[in-house]
Amino acid sequence: MSEDKAGAKSEKNVAVAGTGYWGKNLVRNFNDLGALAAVCDSDPARLADMAKQYPGVRGVAGFQEVLRDKSIAALAIATPAETHADLVKQALLAGKDVCVEKPLCLSVDEGKALVALANEKKRVLMVGHLLWYHPAVLKLKELVEAGELGRIQYIYSHRLNLGKIRREENILWSFAPHDISVILGLVGEIPDSVQSQGGNYLHQKIADVTVSLLSFASGVRAHIFVSWLHPFKEQKLVVVGDRKMAVFDDVAEKNKLVLYPHTIDWKNRLPVAHKADAEPVAFEMQEPLRAECSHFLECVRTRGRPRTDGEEGLRVLGVLQECQKGL
Questions:
Q1: DSSP per-residue string spanning 119-150
Q2: What's the pLDDT tens digit per position in 187-228?
Q3: Integer distance in angstroms from the first to the last C-alpha of the chain?
Q4: Is the pLDDT assigned to residue 1 strictly greater than 50?
Q5: Which domains does the chain have, with CATH numbers?
Q6: pLDDT, tens digit, for every residue of 241-272?
Q7: pTM of the model as a whole
Q8: Among positive and negative, which fits the CA dihedral 36, 283, 158, 156?
Q9: Beta bridge partner(s), residue 58
Q10: Fewer Cβ close by (within 10 Å): the C or N end of the chain?
Q11: Half-sphere exposure (CA, 13 Å, Cβ side) for 280?
Q12: What kind and span of H or E run contains 185?
């Protein structure tokens, strides 16, 4: 037994399936939290690398072996998106709690079946929508709910970079789930209209750039621009209210969350903008993935409902699927 930063005791009863680009970060965090019992990967080289880095952790090549192990209570799944539906289903049927990387799976029907199965088996099902574990996003949500920004008018997000270019999913499914998740949470609605368009430049069947427009019944609109074919990295979310505007810039080294109390006055029936000084918002920084892993362990321990549970994952999946139709 060990203790995480919150002081709660953790058992070594978690296995991570998939130790590649993102999975290795889950391995590091669950190990640091004292919860990691095993890693599972079909690549012998990766397993050998994990064995060197984490000598006390078992390396397993077969997923079924992990499922049969009764000492493993929970699984973190970081395998390619097209495997999520099958692996999550197998894990739930084996009685394991599951945290799966985004997206939950690749179709709404599969997602509904997974959520129903988790409820039937009374298992925790959590989706790795990482931004909901970022302290700046939680602070932004708090400000929106407190009315600090006034009535939300529109939101836009940019998630841009050069690579990592994938071949198993397009840019929409790779990058946009994070932003869709946050926008749905801030607005508190499901869009009644979704439009999307994109461009396939590196591969004729895989979109490298997409722009999506979400329209909500309340009048709020949001657009999401994602690309892995971009000259520089940008991860920015702008929320415009009728009292203040907020900017969350995750690439910024400091002042990641800033408020702009700009105002608009009407003179002679014309709008006149008055710019105000930026107001940095203070919050206590913590690695979002560490917070996500801690939250999952807490839900496993207390049988609580995850902040990004299967239902939340399903809402995001529904919007993704509508965006894909537009493409």
A1: HHHT--EEEE-GGGG-HHHHHHHHHHHTTTT-
A2: 999 999 999 999 999 988 899 999 999 999 999 999 999 999
A3: 49
A4: no
A5: 2-129+289-307 (3.40.50.720), 132-287+319-326 (3.30.360.10)
A6: 999 999 999 999 999 999 999 878 888 888 88
A7: 0.92
A8: positive
A9: 38
A10: N
A11: 9
A12: helix 171-187
